[in-house]
Amino acid sequence: MRKTGVYFEGCAKESMDAALNSCGLGFPDLARVCATGYGRHNVPFANTTRTEIACHSRAAHHFFPRQITVVDVGGQDNKIYMSTPRAIGKSFRMNRKCAAGTGAFLEEVAQRMDVPLEQIESLARQAKHVVHMGSYCTVFTKTEILAHLRAGEKVPEIVAGLMESVVKRIIEMDPLSGEVVISGGVVAHNPVLAEMLARHLGHPVQIFPNAQLAGAFGAALLPPKSLEWIPISKRLIPEIRGYESFSRANFSAYSSSIFHSPSSSVTPSTRDASRLSVSFSPWI
Known about the structure:
- The protein is of the alpha/beta class.
- It is 37% helix and 16% strand.
- Helix 4 crosses helix 6 (155-173).
- The longest helix is centred in the middle third of the chain and has 19 residues, at 155-173.
């Protein structure tokens, strides 16, 4: 995983090469490449493209074949959608255009406090209380952080407050009834977010398996668009191998940002010939 910068197509190629090298494969070994995410149309070697909603919904249906509410906390936006045994992605909502409450928000405020991103999770757990943030705006929050620091509040308590503000933005989008599962790179590296959400809701919140790769995994499961008319129960679902092994450590060599799901991510799958599905979203 790596930041795209301003060179979307070049980053997609570099990410593909890195993924193939890690699997010991070459591009001719691939049967199909599916691109998804904000930058899906900037992957010139992709055979097909699919939306994030379709890919995350398909992955959710695979792991949780029942009615659930999925919360996807991404780098630039948050999405909430319902998946049922009969309808994948039955309905969905997205946050407003503002990036507050997303991975970009956490990265911006972490830089303001000079806190490395990989330390946010542990700092939030050290907090003895939560400093409540009155503003959702990233710019105003930076000013508010300075005010709290001048007032003597400690960094762990402020970080916990920032995590809580993300949770509040999620709840503002939807009441989140029933079984809730959360995905995305933010919660993959900060599971304390799911714990905070569970406390607000009053019931447990599950974290998607390998949450940061949910979109890529769903892309690997989706059939070519020409076969979409076939009911899910009658489709020949390919065997996906290797998904469990793609943990945070496997991608750390390719990632300069641990929060931004809007970057390139890949997950391999095999069915006779090897396939590779690419989840690619730009972030500048």
